[in-house]
């Protein structure tokens, strides 16, 4: 399992603004101008957030004239879903809060 790549993705999603942007993109491709309309941030700040999302591989960008258009990388999103689904908490392996770690 490549935990480092998943850590980069979860780090990108750990910011509230980026998480909101990602949720917006679940409805389909969006122009940066439409994303900007939903936030009280500047274009350079949006670029910073989009760079983090794109660098993680979770979001892809394409140029459309003067603007960038963003969408979710479905293959990467499916990898994350598989990781989360593969995590299985077993009751017998859980540590009771009252239990000592010694």
Q: What are the salient characteristics of this protein?
A:
102 residues, alpha+beta, 3-stranded antiparallel beta sheet, 5 helices
Could you describe the 3D structure shown?
The protein is α+β, with helices and mostly antiparallel strands and about 100 residues long. Helices cover about 50% and strands about 15% of the residues. It has five helices and three strands, in the order H-H-E-H-H-E-E-H. The protein has helices at about 5-15, 15-25, 30-35, 45-55, 75-85, and strands at about 30, 60-65, 65-70. Strands 1-3-2 form a three-stranded antiparallel β-sheet. A hairpin with a 2-residue loop joins strand 2 (about 60-65) and strand 3 (about 65-70). It is elongated. It starts with a helix and ends in a 16-residue tail after the last helix. The relative contact order is 0.15. The mean pLDDT is about 90.
Quaternary class: single chain
Tally of DSSP helical segments: 5
Largest sheet: 3 strands, antiparallel
Overall helicity: 40-55%
Q: In what range is the share of β-strand residues?
A: 5-15%
Helix/strand-derived class?
A: alpha+beta
Globally, the shape reads elongated
Mean pLDDT over the full residue set: 89
**Beta strands, count:** 3
Distance linking N and C termini: 29 Å
Q: What string gives the helices and strands in order?
A: HHEHHEEH
Q: Within the largest sheet, what's the order of strands? A: 1-3-2
Rg (CA only): 18 Å
Uncertain residue ranges = none
């Amino acid at each position: 399992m490549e935990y480092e790549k998943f850590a980069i993705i979860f780090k990108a999603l750990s910011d509230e603004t980026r998480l909101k942007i990602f949720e917006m993109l679940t409805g389909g491709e969006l122009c940066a101008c439409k994303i900007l309309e939903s936030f009280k941030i500047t274009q350079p700040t949006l670029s910073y957030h989009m760079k983090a999302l794109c660098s993680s591989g979770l979001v892809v960008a394409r140029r459309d004239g003067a603007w960038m258009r963003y969408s979710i990388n479905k293959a990467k999103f499916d990898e994350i879903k598989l990781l989360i689904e593969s995590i299985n908490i077993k009751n017998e392996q859980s540590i009771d809060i009252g239990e000592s770690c010694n």
